[in-house]
Write a structure and sequence with these properties.
There is one protein chain. By secondary structure, the chain is mainly β. The chain contains no helices and eleven strands.
């Protein structure tokens, strides 16, 4: 898809992510993500952005690391507050220099909400 200035926002195809049913306050939250690469589309990096669902807060970021057939990030328990649900989204950086977010804003809400307890 092309936007003013000719910037390409590629589709994030082949994403496999099962969101945790909840996040426990003060406990680290591991996130596991699988991506299907093709000859045309290889991944250079995947970053996870997260914050409590408090609009005055900035998102924190962590680069996901290769782990047992997929990639993984851990959201530190110190970033999880029982008073607020946790918002997350991912930035996929491709080998050709393009990038996109997942979940894709063209297909629904551009973030996931994980309830806290």
């Amino acid at each position: 898809m092309y936007w003013p200035g000719g910037i390409v926002h590629p589709q994030a195809l082949g994403v496999d992510f099962d969101a945790p049913s909840h996040a426990d306050s003060a406990h680290d939250l591991p996130l596991r993500f699988k991506l299907q690469e093709t000859e045309e589309r290889t991944f250079r990096a995947v970053h996870c952005f997260y914050r409590n669902a408090h609009q005055a807060l900035d998102f924190e970021e962590t680069e996901m690391q290769a782990h047992a057939g997929g990639i993984e990030a851990v959201i530190p328990g110190t970033s999880i507050d029982v008073a607020w649900d946790l918002m997350i989204f991912f930035e996929l950086r491709f080998g050709d220099g393009t990038a996109t977010r997942w979940p894709d804003w063209r297909n629904g809400t551009p973030y996931l909400v994980i309830p806290t307890r």
